[in-house]
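re: ur question from earlier - yeah i can do the single chain one, its not a big deal. heres the input i used so u can compare w yours
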Amino acid sequence: MKPELMLFWTAVSLYGISTFSYIFGMIAKQDKLFTIGLFSAVAGFVPHVAVIALRWSATGITPFIDISESLTLGIFMTVLLFLVFQFSTKKVRPLGVLVMPVAFVLLGWAGTLMKEVAATLAPALQSGWIWVHIVGASAGFASVLIAAGLGLMYLLKENKSGGIYDKLPDLATLDMFSYRFVAGGFILYGLMMISGCFWSNQVKGSYWGWDPVEVWSLVSWLTYGIYLHLRVTFGWRGRRLAWYALIALIAMIVSYWGIPFTVETFHSGFRIDHK
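and the output i got, formated as tokens:
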């Protein structure tokens, strides 16, 4: 097995340990298991970074060309943001009960799709807009996934007390954190769409082509726009928005990876040359 694949599956395995540590920690209400989950995530993040670095060095561009690379990069950004938030706000340790299972499953799926030979991007597709597009997409997904995790923490803490629930921030704080991450994700996702339009115009001569991924991206973005509208205009708080954040995450995952995987689109056709 090539070093890159060994590193990749090491990362997946450690994320798996993290996943089950968080799940059993929540079931058994054991804070020590959350600590194991957190540091397993840190340990898995190291080979994860190495995989991206190896792919980058092989192609000279951030790995995002196919679904596998896109998943790998999106989960990298998710775990990075998760770890930063965990170490800066220690009271949200159980957040990993949603974030790490999603990271584990999606990265494992990426492994089943990974090609051993890296691919390059067609010269016609290379543009400065691509960097804004990539960062907006991966960071936007990371933000709304963490928002959904905070929503789950809200629902778990609501009407419960004692043990790990007393160590969580109060409901108002969880609600506020979730709102901020949704707002951040909405902005980042908007940047992704705008940069994608300019990129599309350079490549295809049109800003919008009704590509299935474009349509689903717009739907996902509007879904989070509605979340913000309901909160700011109608004063929605708490349980309703916590559920909303969890359900909206499904639309985001579908638009990012479900559509390109099941339907032949412009976004499915970046892989054009192997080294």
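Residues 121-268 form one domain. not sure if urs matches, ping me
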